[in-house]
Amino acid sequence: TLDKTIQYQMDAAVLNRVKFLSAKGGTAIAIDSRTGDVLAMTNVKRRADGTVALAQGNFGAVEAYEPGSVAKIFSISAALNEGVVTPETVLTVPGIVNIDNFPIRDAWPHGPLDMSVRTILAESSNIGTMMVAEKINFNRLHDYLSSFGFGQHTGLNYPGESRGILKSVKKTYGTERSTVSYGYGFAASPLQMVSAANVVANGGTYVSPRLVSATVDRNGKKHETAASKTRDVLKPATAATMTDLMRDVVCYGTGERAKVKGMEIAGKTGTTNDAKDLWFVGYSPDLAVGVFMGYDKPRSLGNS
Hints:
The protein is about 30% helix and about 25% strand.
């Protein structure tokens, strides 16, 4: 299913950014939103001698990382889908919340703020997202995360593919029941992440990624492979609402650098590993893309 032109451009772009940002590595994946066909998959690593090159391994499928704020897409989608909030629902978000003596803060210091769900996502408020997610039962939130594909193989059937980490409800304790809503306490591969975000791009339907479109037997006869399996996760109206909110992220929020002139782009940023690693997932009407950049030292989204 790979598109040679997209693959070439993606290879060049990721190599350039890993070099420019002094990252230890980067991964990017592009899939067709409707079919799940993988159009490009790039993995770049910095070698021990400091040089940067395309990696031999497909780390986008076999390695998993905490998703950080990108996960806010899924918890806020769940709350919207359950009808417990709307984009204009306003919550009074405190500057700090202590759970089991663990302080939870936003990325910027503030006192109590009245924030709409739309603003919570655009400005990537950890506490606001946690408050939104708490409006539904944790078991139900866990069901949604599972439906988005976390904790299981994507269906690509790639050798050594990671399931990521999504603990069972019974094994999720204390603060993790809160932090999972904004991306801490579980892990996902870049392939899982772009497939999950594509649920929103694809009108609420999960479509398994596909890498092989056909095979040719020893007699030269071509055999088309089966179309990707699908499942409903969100109502189409919820997906449309989330797309509207994620466009705000790109237009006015933390994802402004993802703007593309003449195109409507929806997306979400995220930082993890003490701000050492960066995520972005986004999509146009036909293409969903996930990007992961890993660092040895903390960085800010503003630098990337």
